[in-house]
Design goal:
Elements lengths: L3 H10 L7 E7 L8 E3 L2 H8 L4 E7 L2 E6 L4 E5 L4 E4 L9 E8 L5 E6 L5 E5 L1 H8 L13 H8 L6 H5 L10 H11 L12 H20 L43 E5 L2 E5 L6
Parallel strand pairs: 2-9
Antiparallel strand pairs: 1-7, 3-4, 4-5, 5-9, 6-8, 7-8, 10-11
Helix pairs in contact: 1-7, 6-7
This protein binds a DNA duplex through loops.
Length: 277
DNA sequence: CCCCAGTCCTGCGGGC
DNA sequence: TGCCCGCAGGACTGGG
């Protein structure tokens, strides 16, 4: 599932779309239910046609394409979405095709196996209202240790659950939350308001380390194989996972304990009962 | 404020 | 061998 490192990797791969002009916008003719797109396709197409893509950025787990008129295309891959320049894994799950002109990329593709992804076109006002700093917390790679602590320390929620709250801090998903807390040596069920300054420092440092390392390895390709760098190239960070999907296997840190799986907020959490207290 | 369960969706793997 | 069911979870919603 694309989280910060995977979305960052996709952003870097599709950087050539900057400077291109959008031609046609097409939905693929797959028999599958089509992904959510706002506004509806005909309106979306009319508003983006002829616009040049001025900039690309990542907002937490979303990709933002800023157009020269100030409108923004926001792509949320959610569980299985992929944003590519070419060679989608198959035709069946290809959902959306932006044809491009006048630059170094010919097209921009949105492929999504499960179809939970969302693509939106937002005016500057809509963007501020729906995805502004009031709604989306500071990016996990830009937040300072002080602000991280300040935003979460008042909460009685378990730290693992809090790290997934995009309103508090943006970019962390289920996989990296477990990896970060293991690296930090903090128990995932620990309430935020019981964590000491040294814990916050450890979490902040672990967060930077894990996310940057994952970006360097171009993200994690899981067993289902949906996330890829290109059709023929998986990410590599899955080989570095210390806890995620390793229940019953020995902890790579202490070597003694077995990794345990628990459920928090209806999601799997993996941790080492010895290294994380 | 926070929690929980339900919703969307497809493919996979376990059990029988 | 085939079929059913549960599971994966990001973001959101409604009820408590």
């Amino acid at each position: 599932m694309p989280e910060l490192p995977e979305v960052e990797t996709m952003c870097r791969r599709i950087a050539p779309v900057v400077g291109c002009r959008i031609g046609n916008l097409k939905r693929s003719s797959s028999p599958l239910q089509s992904i959510l797109i706002y506004p509806r396709l005909s309106v979306f197409r009319r508003r983006v046609k002829g616009q040049t893509i001025a900039a690309i950025s990542r907002l937490g787990k979303r990709v933002v394409l800023e157009l020269e008129n100030g409108e923004r295309i926001v792509i949320e891959p959610r569980m299985t979405g992929l944003i590519l320049l070419d060679n989608p894994p198959d035709r069946k799950h290809l959902r959306l095709i932006f044809e491009l002109e006048g630059g170094s990329a010919r097209q921009l593709l949105f492929w999504d196996q499960r179809g939970l992804g969302v693509v939106r076109l937002l005016s500057p006002g809509e963007f501020r209202k729906e995805l502004g700093p009031e709604r989306i917390g500071p990016d996990a790679l830009r937040i300072t240790p002080e602000i991280l602590r300040k935003r979460l320390v008042g909460s009685r929620r378990a730290i693992k659950v809090a790290l997934l709250d995009q309103h508090a801090i943006a970019g962390i998903g289920n996989l990296y939350a477990s990896e970060i807390l293991h690296r930090a040596g903090v128990h995932p069920a620990k309430p935020c308001n019981e964590l000491k300054p040294r814990h916050w420092a450890a979490i902040h440092a672990a967060m930077r380390k894990v996310l940057q390392e994952a970006i360097r390895h171009q993200g994690s390709t899981l067993r289902d194989g949906t996330y890829r760098v290109t059709r023929d190239e998986p990410g590599n960070y899955q080989d570095k996972h210390r806890v995620y999907q390793r229940a019953g296997k020995p902890c790579l840190q202490c070597g003694a304990a077995e990794i345990v799986r628990i459920v928090q907020a209806q999601r799997s959490t993996f941790f080492c009962p010895v290294c994380q207290r």
